[in-house]
Task: structure prediction
Amino acid sequence: MLDRIFKLGKEAAIYGLSSIVGRFLNFLLVPVYTNFLATTDYGVMANVYAYIAFAFVVYGYGMDSAYMRFVASLDTADKKQTVSVPYFSLLGTSVLFSVLIYLYAPAISDVLGVGAEHADLIRYSGWILCFDTLAIVPFAYLRMENRAKMFAGLRILNIIINVLLTILLFVVFKMGIEAVFIANLLASAVTAVVLAAVVFPQLTVHVPSRLHNEMIRFGFPYIPAGLSGIAIQVIDVPILKALTNDATVGVYRANYRLGVLMMLVVGMFDYAWRPFFLTHAKDNDAQKLFSKVFTYFVALMMLVFVTGSLFIDDIARIRVFGRYIIHPDYWGGLGIVPIILLAYVFTGAYVNFVVGVYLEKKTKYLPYATGAGALVNVVLNFLLIPKFGITGAAVATLLSYIVMAVGIYFPSQRLYHVKYEWGRLTRLTLAACTVVVVFMMLGLQPATAVGIAVKLGFSAAFILLVFVLKVFDSADIKETRDALSRMFVRS
Result:
């Protein structure tokens, strides 16, 4: 069994390479933004990108998930048709939507509260959405074809172009906030063109309407589900802006993005997870396999949660070329990072729990789970932000992800029961939370030799607790060692 899990880990590592490099390169943009943008400009940028995230769900209308599900079975069409139908559908709708956004940008900017002076940012956003949408199906195609290296390479290419252009426009051309959007637009355009060339041999002009209708029926439930999911991620931005100001939004979102450590783990897992469980769903021990995967996955997430929570202050205060990684104007929000890291743990749980809904094509349950999470997020943001500020917004995000994970767990279990190792998972979570809470109670000063030594000690204490609480026993360790030995012998 562990051989298959390690194979999943190997594939996730390849996908994760793009995420690791990509997130690192994207992380470089955080210090660039915080050092070249005032907190108010960062707030405007965060606000616009929040709306881009919502619009992207509508632009894609679940066609990537529909493609992956239909190509996995090929019970309704041949392979080329299954690629062509969603690709051409998205091509037509995304161009139409972006032309409308371009024409009505001033009115849209007023409605969104961005201000008519930022209408060009809305125009750039429309074409960013168009090109990013055209990359959806080709990227899904690479995943389903197990072409992880090309997938990783193209994602890294996109981010490298974005980062280099952003720095160039800020440093050389002395541009302001528009530099962020221009760099993003050019990077997205290059990626879309390259991916179009990759997928072109798989396209056919014969696109049966029946297949299109079936894919639409499968994918459309992802719109409310996706909007709800995005609401959980970014609805706090417009609410925070309404209740505070752009500067507060800027501080909040800059520190929110420091949750990149957990986003990386969840993202790299998700890329490999869907093809993995589709491939192994019919195995005799599939349920046991999926349960074991979740245990190991949570162990990895808890390790990231502990280390990220302990060392984030030190990371923010690192100086490079005379500048801090995170400008001191933004340090006031570092306290929300552990909360955001924990929130992404429950995102990872949601990704795992969705198996039953996905395998049985019961996507109608997705909007209920994500909708409940979004509703909780909105209500709690209005209740908590006035009293606790950005900490309240972070707590609202955490609780909404918990609701979303729980909400999808029960219907998915009814459809495809997996007996998760809740005893081990509880002990694992208890160990991680105990270490983080006790450390925070000490109130150590960051970026000191004593503080770093103590944090290393706490990290070691977490690993020790995992074994003291018998999260993994000697049989697990032996099985892991044997599986790793077989893997290295084959390689």
Remarks:
- The radius of gyration is 23 Å.
